[in-house]
Specification:
- The chain has 427 residues and is an alpha/beta fold.
- The chain is 45% helix and 20% strand.
- Bound molecules: ligand C2E and calcium ion (2 copies).
- One calcium ion binds next to loops.
Length: 427
């Protein structure tokens, strides 16, 4: 048999605008129209507000597709509600038993998922369930489930990766990178869970936690005598878009009694370019408090050079894909980006520096700072403190790029699948 999951598109506004009595009348008309099309012995049921299911003794995909198309066609004929014509459409998802599912619950779930895909593609459409979606979404779904309550359970931790002077090797600042240790999923990398947190809205609380945690950490290092340590924090576009973003940052600084100079923010172009004026207003407020702003992952998005001129940022981080491409393709792109950035008064940080030859390349092109495994992996807070101590103890002005030599612990793997180094550029 087969299950068709039918969900009306934009039904809620009908209830809101015309009231529930009219909404109910519309649902009855919808059900009546579907019933007319269905063969005898076919079950039609209402399972939720504007959700109906059909259970049919039909397994032929062509015939099912025709049935779904017929339903959509009939539902699209305008309705008369209180003497007013009203058009409404639906989205339909279809799952076959036993082909797509072996029990009622998963048949309904899979038909629901197919319906969701039909709706995502704009509605007024039907889709058959495809087994390949299931792995994607169940992985993502599992992450979403485990993310619930993860903050309260204390499953997050910040690691700190040194950003250093390419010539002297001395510490300039740290970048805070979020780590999630979940008892069910193990260590999950931010590339995997941040997008899910952005979709389900958790990113706002999570992002605020990151700000407060980093601020608290900076304060505790300052108390130990490292008064000028600076930490930059990654900010999701979803977070930055909030009208109260500047207040959230200010509150985190106040809570830890920190000056703005102690904190940097890293933002991607995608967070800024939708509304350049609005973004610049927020950036100006943040910079007035002393925070430094870096444009992250430069080179992976649209990276229009004209944006560089229009966005009020202090620094630009060259994406690691450029640094890595220097070995094969030479450094002309890196050199051009650095020259242009300097022309515009921006500092440049090279990301993902792993080898001595990459370091030599980015220093030759006069990148102002470098970050990467060559110097250190992201470190737990206790190890970052040790790094600070060794950095403070090293002789100044020796001009050696050997820096604080990474110790074994700094090179240890953090124990989760990080992004494939061969991954295509984002954007
Ligand atoms: P990102 O901002 O580009 O951060 C740099 C990433 O490169 C980090 O990955 C870092 O561990 C990795 N990395 C640093 N040096 C090297 C190197 O030499 N070689 C290689 N192969 N990788 C290097 P990570 O920690 O997995 O973070 C991935 C992304 O997740 C970050 O990319 C950032 O976009 C996002 N992210 C991390 N923490 C946060 C956070 O607190 N909030 C938000 N919104 N996003 C975060
Ligand atoms: Ca970053
Ligand atoms: Ca980056």
């Amino acid at each position: 048999m087969s299950v068709l999951f039918i969900d009306l598109d934009r039904f809620k506004p009908v209830n809101d605008l015309f009231g529930h009595a009219i909404g109910d009348a519309l649902l009855k008309q919808v059900a009546g129209r579907i019933r007319q099309i269905l063969p005898p012995n076919t079950l039609l049921a209402r399972v939720g507000g504007d959700e109906l299911i059909v259970v049919a003794e039909q397994l032929n995909r062509n015939a099912l597709g025709q049935m779904a198309a017929e339903i959509l066609k009939h539902l699209a004929i305008p309705y008369q509600l209180n003497g007013r014509p009203l058009a409404i459409s639906a989205s339909i998802g279809i799952a076959l038993v036993p082909h797509d599912a072996l029990d009622a619950q998963s048949a309904l779930g899979h038909a629901d998922l197919a319906m969701y895909r039909a709706k995502q593609s704009g509605g007024n459409a039907y889709r058959f369930f495809e087994a390949s979606w299931h792995d994607e979404t169940s992985g993502q779904f599992e992450i979403e489930v485990q993310l619930q309550g993860a903050l309260e359970r204390g499953e997050f931790e910040l690691h700190y990766q040194p950003i250093v002077d390419p010539h002297a090797g001395s510490l300039r600042s740290f970048e805070a990178l979020l780590r999630w240790h979940n008892p069910v999923l193990g260590m999950v990398g931010p590339d995997r869970f941040i997008p899910v947190a952005e979709q389900c809205g958790l990113i706002l609380r999570l992002g605020e936690w990151v700000l407060r945690e980093a601020a608290w950490q900076i304060q505790s290092w300052r108390a130990l005598g490292y008064g000028d340590v600076r930490v930059s924090v990654n900010v999701s576009p979803v977070q930055f878009a909030q009208s109260e973003f500047v207040e959230t940052v200010t509150a985190a600084l106040h809570a830890a009694a920190l000056p703005g100079q102690a904190v940097g923010l890293e933002l991607t172009e995608s967070a800024l370019i939708h509304d350049i004026e609005g973004s610049n207003a927020k950036l100006a407020a943040l910079r007035a408090m002393g925070l430094r702003i870096a444009l992250d992952d430069f080179g992976t998005g649209f990276s229009s050079l004209s944006y560089l001129q229009r966005l009020d940022v202090d620094a630009l981080k060259i994406d690691r894909s450029f640094v890595w491409s220097m070995d094969q393709k030479g450094g002309s792109l890196v050199r051009a980006i650095v020259e242009l950035a300097h022309e515009l008064g921006l500092r440049v940080v090279a990301e993902g520096v792993e080898t001595a030859s990459q370091l030599a390349g980015v220093s030759r092109f006069e990148c102002d700072s470098v970050q990467g495994y060559f110097f250190s992996k992201p470190l737990r807070a206790v190890d970052a403190l040790e790094y600070l101590q060794r950095d403070a103890a090293r002789p100044k002005g020796d001009g050696q790029a050997s820096g604080v030599l990474p110790d074994a612990r700094a090179l240890q793997d953090e124990g989760f699948d990080r992004a494939d180094p061969e991954r295509p550029m984002r954007g």
